[in-house]
TrEMBL record, chains A, B, C:
Annotated protein name in UniProt: Uronate isomerase
Species of origin: Novosphingobium silvae
Enzyme class, first EC level, given as a word: isomerase
GO biological process, one term: D-glucuronate catabolic process
EC number: 5.3.1.12
Catalytic reactions of this protein: aldehydo-D-galacturonate = keto-D-tagaturonate; D-glucuronate = D-fructuronate
Family, similarity comment: Belongs to the metallo-dependent hydrolases superfamily. Uronate isomerase family.
NCBIfam families: PRK02925.1 (NF002794)
GO function terms (MF aspect): glucuronate isomerase activity
Pfam family membership, one: UxaC
Gene name, Swiss-Prot/TrEMBL: uxaC
Annotated keywords: Isomerase
Pathway in which this enzyme or protein is active: Carbohydrate metabolism; pentose and glucuronate interconversion
Length: 480, 480, 480
């Protein structure tokens, strides 16, 4: 039975002198608090603090990184107890699903999931044997036992993980009741929301019609006039800010922006609300709305995040049976330079606007994103995202953006996850990769050691707070 | 006179601890048999077992990697004894061509050709001095002498190279007589064919008209009806399977697929056969046929290989004088996500279908190919191909695909070569690069040593057999 | 106060055995003369030999690498004493601008600017403390003091830098008076020009109308007929050759070429000169003119450089206030394979034509540029350019081009700079990165040590002279 342990030097470059530098840098941030300004955990967990039930429900069924890989090897989602469309649960014994996962643990070799899982298993649950077919039941039972204890309730883990701030993401039609409940509970954990209005902006979103109704109700505005619709966004942004939001988030296929005259906006909006906008008009409306969101960010100071480039629900049959977010989202080539121009013509030089650009198309790092962020005051680069949130992906991000955009046009790490237990693992990977990159620069005499020591604090804490407008809590990070 | 020797640590990372791990991993597969499931050697060699004549004919004139580089530096193909169009030989003394090549050996520094050549020279022919202008004749004479000996006949080398299986590639208009002759001869070397129907599918292929006639004759079907044309493919696929084929191969400029209604197919096919299809219709026909080939693979279990993205015969003057495959094929940006969608909508979730995707556009590794293969059950990633079949290319392939697709959605190495003598060299390079990559993961504590030991066997043997539906021979690989 | 020193091992790989090899290779070229066949220094400096005035005017205000990064962090160009449109100087105390730069020195950590600056500070001016807010005045004063001394005049620095040849770049409407003055002065420094006719070829260039007039005057040709316009180019190319030019340079957004019939050319040219060409016609005219420039290069032997892919003046407001070249040029995806085909169909196989291709789109290195240069006799690859003229960028260039194009289809280093004092720093970085790359190949036994020793001379001197048709001076490089 193979043993499980987390090596203290994991992810550091093998060269001994570089590794020694990385180790020293890492020591300075290993215990820094976690700041998670963008992610997808469920605020209900922290509102109710109800216990999770079992390993499958907690770790396997919600993690598309895991079930997409298993699916790619011919394993049906039903066998993994992944919910069908509308949340309908397949009749699968969660223990059987866990065993199937365990027997296929080898499929994840060399992937970030492998590192995240081992970190969760060793560090959160204290396992010292690796997960495989022979230890599946041992794991399943021990996790079930742990989850009933108070120490494994959501709030307890939040505190154990030393999370300084955790941002969730809610739609424009969300009443934010869980965030209100968290505040009402008196618990001091800082969980904030993020304004993600995609489903009331994208006429092609499958929840558009439903969410527009909720949007009208919650804002109390006449969302059927262009003016009222914009006012509704302003109101809801304020609602979100009241629940701690400092940022918005936007995820369309392209980064296209537009700058239409008001009459054009009104006419286009009329078509959208009448349901008569064609694909090009829908695209133009999303483009105009990205510009409107930038305009509102200039007004209200919210940081604007743009996550483009995913072809959602590529597998038509799977979408029909299982719905969204089932590992069938595939990146596409993404263009920024012309697409962002209309918005940048208006707001590119605003000194206080912060627009964070993400990408699933790594070719844009050196060609478009670093040059744009290395010039426009409003632009910052989000960290390596989704498929690229991995050791090699993060390393490429630094290697391909630093020389043109520098470190100071980046914003630190986002875990961007719904897998709450993996948050410490993910931040730890990011810190280790950053330390390894800085260590290489020091070893190659491209950066002084004192500069690297300064930078590792910035990448872990300083730039994150600055980009997302976060204040340092009274408890402050002490340099090691 | 510079000496020639193959360093036992070649291609391993320089860091001593990583190198030591790579060395150990390599020891486990250094002597594994060669499985070559995709390539372009000439089956006639093994059918007739006739000796090759001289170094130029054997090593230089057929190797487009070599003569393209020499051509780029202003050396005419005639001077290198490369055949002109229709196989017409220029009046060039093969020894003079060899001398010219030898005098320009330095042009290949840093290229994979350099490593392959030295491996062939040192390991196959036993040279201990490097090839250059001063040793050209010594090389030429020694090679000529070797080639007349029985030990250098094709079958003897096949056995000496410890080739477990060698797949050649034949067109749909090929009668497979050499494969039949190999079987009839009683020789036990396992040489199989691969079904490559491009020239009867692509209306713009310069052999289309001629090959359609052969296709009709060999299949005995009425290839002028859509139904008969498809039946002819089914027959010929069966013919190829009878000669050991487990795979088909398709190489168009794009990966576009289509799913037309039957009446549309018939109408389109009618135009194609009438010679009246325009460029868009030709593209649509190729697209529909990729889907038909996938459908047939679902039926008959043949693995489908897609090799897209080469702009063939880019140099118009050279094409006129020297014809195809003269080093003037240039890659193009290639799109997979939308192009494959019609086929994937139909067959993407088929658990037994195997479609292996290759690329000449490395930007698709992280952006499109790894995400697709990490989701769709039918998709696998072919190894770094053609221009990328090189140490840096292979390293990038692993670095850019593993984290999203894992190792188990890849299919091991293809030598894809017509240069028979270089086959051991090419497999050796691939094994060394894989060992170096695995060693880095182990040295960075991202993979346990026992996992790497398991993986190196999979990458060399296990995944190859699985992807191409090959059975292990009775003689089985013993782990070191 | 942090100290400043240049580590002798800077930029070499950290692995000790690789570093030792790099060190040895570097020793062979560390003191080689600087050959700078492409750049943008001002010939007036060498014609008048007038002293520079202060650090801000010399080092900060003309360097778009510096002020673009400061601008991206919200610092106005006026505060940095960067001239406004038409050369109007803002009322900014240059010392205040320098202090602001110094206080933000940290923004450049990890960028090539950081290495270039430190090299200039330590090596050219002899500083041993780092620049920051506390040393800004010390720097400003010491630099001002140095600049009045004869040793810091342009010609003295030219000689101190051991520059064998320096090419500047002038437009087709330039009278080359500074180059004539240099020659008339009897000074022996070799400063040559380069023919850059963009502003008389691109109908959309903002100086087109003005420069066409100068072009007519200087050539004495009737530039309003197609024939006369071409003759004017031929005359001006001869004028430039008389001032030492061996090369031309062309920088449009795309690499499109065309091969129109003469009547079509005349009609298109008529529209262009009438000011009635639309965007597509302007693009077609540029395309035809690239082909005409290649044709003239076949005639007169001038090396043709193509620098495509920059979206110029992306920031509309900044362009309005500050004009061109203010750090707001952003790369775009660039296509070469189809774009160059018309020109290559005509001249691709010309043995004496030399066309050097550059790119801002690194994805083309392996996919298009290396395959093209590894086949066509006329094509060579320019070094990593602009945003990619950096340690990581240069490393990627070698890793992504060498295996397909080899070293011998590359042309050595271009500093391509207007920052004269940084020229030694830039060449030093290039030499160190090349030595590190070669050292890795040697350490991995992919290249023999004697091959690397040969190559480092070629990359530093031999290939540069060959690509740009330069003769070795009587003083020749001695191998170390």
């Amino acid at each position: 039975m193979p043993s499980l342990s987390l090596h203290p030097d994991r992810l550091f470059p093998a060269d001994p002198s570089t590794r020694a530098i990385a180790r020293e840098l890492y020591a300075q941030v290993a215990d820094a608090p976690i700041i998670s300004p963008h992610g997808h955990t469920d605020p209900e967990w922290f509102a109710t603090d109800a216990p999770w039930t079992n390993a499958t429900e907690l770790l396997l069924a919600p993690d598309h990184y895991l079930f997409r890989m298993l699916y790619s090897q011919g394993i049906a989602l039903d066998e993994l107890a992944v919910p069908r469309k509308g949340g309908v649960m397949p009749k699968t014994d969660p223990r059987a699903a866990w065993r199937l996962f365990a027997a296929n643990r080898h499929l994840f070799r060399g992937t970030p999931s492998s590192m995240w899982l081992d970190h969760v298993f060793a560090d959160v649950f204290g396992f010292d044997v690796a997960l495989d077919a022979t230890t599946a039941d041992q794991y399943y039972d021990a996790i079930a036992e742990a989850l009933v204890s108070p120490a494994f309730r959501p709030r307890a883990l939040f505190e154990r993980f030393d999370i300084e701030l955790l941002a969730t993401t809610e739609g424009a039609g969300d009443d934010l009741k869980h965030h209100k409940a968290i505040r009402a509970s008196g618990w001091e954990g800082k969980v904030v929301t993020t304004y993600r209005p995609d489903s009331v902006i994208d006429p092609e979103h499958d929840s558009f019609a439903r969410d527009i109704v909720r949007f009208a109700q919650l804002s109390g505005e006449d969302v059927h006039s262009w003016k009222g619709y914009l006012a509704a966004h302003r109101k809801r942004r304020a609602d979100f800010r009241a629940m701690g939001a400092t940022a918005t988030d936007h995820g369309f296929l392209t980064t296209r922006t537009a700058n239409l005259a008001n009459a054009e906006c009104e006419a286009l909006f009329g078509k959208v609300m009448a349901g008569s906008a064609d694909a090009q008009e829908a695209e133009l409306f999303r483009a105009q709305m990205l510009t409107e969101m930038a305009r509102m960010s200039v007004e209200d100071g919210m940081t604007m995040q743009i996550h483009p480039g995913a072809t959602r629900n590529h597998n038509a049959r799977l979408f029909e049976s299982h719905g969204r977010d089932k590992g069938a989202d595939i990146p596409r080539a993404t263009e920024y330079v012309e697409a962002l121009r209309p918005m940048l013509d208006l707001f590119g030089n605003e000194p206080d606007l912060k627009v964070i650009l993400f990408t699933l198309d790594e070719t844009t790092y050196t060609r478009e994103l670093a040059p744009l962020a290395g010039h426009y005051p409003c632009l910052k680069l989000g960290p390596a995202w989704w498929f690229h949130d991995s050791p090699e992906g993060m390393r490429r991000f630094r290697e391909m953006t630093t020389e043109t955009a520098g470190f100071y046009n980046t914003v630190g790490f986002n875990d961007d996850t719904r897998a709450f237990l993996s948050i410490p693992a993910r931040h730890d990977v990011a810190r280790r990769i950053d330390c390894g990159f800085l260590a290489r620069l020091v070893a190659e005499h491209r950066l002084a050691d004192w500069e690297a020591a300064d930078l590792v604090q910035e990448l872990t804490v300083g730039l994150v707070r600055k980009a997302y407008g976060l204040k340092a809590p009274e408890r402050e990070v002490e340099p090691a």
